[in-house]
Amino acid sequence: MMSEMTVVSEIYDEYNYRTDSAPSRKENVISQFPFLLPKEKAKHTFDEDDDLDFERPSREVIKIEHSFKTKIALVGLQVWRGAFLLGDLLIHLGVNGELEGKTILELGAGTGLTSFVAGIYAKKVVCTDIDLGGILDLIKINARCNSKLIKSEFIVLPLDFTNLNWNAALFKEIQQTDIIIAADVIYDDDVTSAFVSTVQKILDTNPPKTIYIVLEKRYVFTIEHMESIAPCYETFLALLDKVKCDWIVEQLPLNFPKYFTYDRVKELVLWKISSK
Predict the structure, then answer these.
(1) How many other CB atoms are found less than 10 A from the CB of residue 164?
(2) In whole angstroms, what is the distance from residue 63 CA to residue 74 CA?
(3) In sequence order, which ranges of 96-230 are alpha helices (DSSP H)?
(4) pTM over 0.85
(5) Rounded to whole angstroms, how far apart are CA atoms 71 and 5?
(6) How many other CB atoms are there within 10 angstroms of residue 68's CB atom?
(7) Which DSSP symbol is given to 10?
(8) How many whole angstroms separate alpha carbon 235 and alpha carbon 61?
(9) What residues contact 39, with CB distance under 8 A and at least 6 apart?
(10) One Pfam family this chain carries (predicted)?
(11) How do residues 50-100 score in pLDDT, each as one tens digit?
């Protein structure tokens, strides 16, 4: 069964993020993910010789406790490449002032990495994931570890894509949310269907709202098609096409700066969906 498959994120072989720090759980590891953090929106200033002077970004790290490998049902306990691309986008938006005063909600936050980046710029961050495998406790551990970076109000709440009967606390936060973010939540058709239903209900709750979704196309070769296809991504597009809503749906170019250390592979895609 798919739920019994063991998977390992590709990023662990691309760069050495590992540290010797002791995790809270012996089966976990602690990694440091470096990134560049611009001080503020770029301003043209001149030094005493009238030469153009640029302020260099600072070098920062996000320290994350995570699993090195998991069953597929618990992939949120690992760190995946899409989190870095979404982190890049959040820094890009933040530097340009587009997150100031905003409430951001992350779906399927996993270890919390991109929520912590959002917390550098937003007024409030609501970090959510399914209450399974101790993932919410892990987010809280990681939030404490990165508290110096997080400038916003930061809360952690359970949100299960398969349960649209939200409790009062979650519903209140969703009502007040301006921007939703999600990365690497497409890995199973049932989860994908539930995710799209969740997105639809959130975007239609007290609009306007905007969601940024980062996905990595994962290709497999099939005898049926006699070629490599990305079935989970195709399912996502098909489900999105069936949604009957007055939305603005855009696939955005990845032409913003790269702040995190990772391979920005061609399989990464970024979607922006806005409700009116």
Answers:
(1) 13
(2) 20
(3) 113-121, 135-145, 168-176, 189-203
(4) yes
(5) 5
(6) 15
(7) T
(8) 35
(9) 55, 57, 58
(10) Methyltransf_16
(11) 554 557 889 999 999 999 999 988 999 999 999 999 999 999 999 999 999
